[in-house]
Design a protein that fits this description.
119 residues; globular; single chain; 0% helix; mainly beta
Length: 119
Amino acid sequence: RGRGGSSAGESYTSSAADKPPPSELQVQSQEVFSGHTAPITRSRFSADGNNVASSSEDGTVRIWSPGNYMSSARNATIYCGAPIISLEWDVRTEKLLLLGTSNGNIKAWNADSKRVVGD
């Protein structure tokens, strides 16, 4: 058999034109959170959707509450002293944010107490 499961002497190829177009994404509203002074490196929603974390090359992580359309909706700013290269919410608790810096440090931030709980 030839490539793609064809019989001898025949070959089939697939192109992007053969694939259906991706479904269209409808955006109902848009929020803009400002405050970082350098490019954003990561952004993540918490598992419960109540918080958004954004990290930056400016060495900060900012925690936002979606739904309040003012920049004052920011709940917290975490100063890490080095660009942030990793940012993930712990899915088991939905309240613990783990972040890693370019200088090899890891911090854990608790969304309920709004403070760093591990360094």
